[in-house]
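Q: My labmate handed me this sequence with no annotations at all. I'd like to see what the chain might look like in three dimensions before we decide whether it's worth expressing. Could you predict it?
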Amino acid sequence: MARCTAPVEGHRTASGAANCPACRGSYRKYNSYPSYSSPYSSSSSSSTSHSSSGGQTKTKALWSSVGSTVLYTPAEIRTLTPVRENVEKRSGLPDLRDVFLCHAWDDRKGVAKELYDLLVLKGVTVWFSEKDVPLGTSLLREIDKGLAKSRIGIVLVTPLFLERVKNEGIADKELSALLARDLLVPIVHNTTFEKLREVSPLLGSRSGLSITIEEPMIDSASKIAELVAS
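A: Here is what I predict for the chain of 230 residues:
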């Protein structure tokens, strides 16, 4: 049996205990602690979800094509789903434009034209007053015809649009007709849904799409294009 090499008062150093033939086993037993992992330690994990700058998880829509890279927030999915269902119900009707673009008259050569061009580039057929109202014809009559022959309506809500609605201009008349159908998608640009609700509570009660730095106009155009795709 191995004898302890330490003096009576015990080993003076840890290395002395470790080298002692009698004590090295006990030293290892009581000084070899299991590793400790804190429950608060951070760990990295991978996720297949995509998040926006605001932290919302985005996903593809049920109507998205297999190779689509367009992602939607949960609020956008809720808003667009009933519109998509109506688009599918109306898919068999002949000679329909995909979209009726409702906008303020003062936006016709600016942001409305920009949105129109993006939609056309994506293969969407659009009723747009600048292109579809012949000179010398009744604007209101042409609007009625455009509304009747479009699958959905999109309302481009800008500060100028809000002013038009306040003053009960042409945009207000278009809006009234669009609100009578569940085929309406508001798109806000340089304003908010809160300000829209102040002017039109009925339209403002519906969520829609927003054009922002994080969500540029091309993103809204892509979502509308998917929404009306056959």
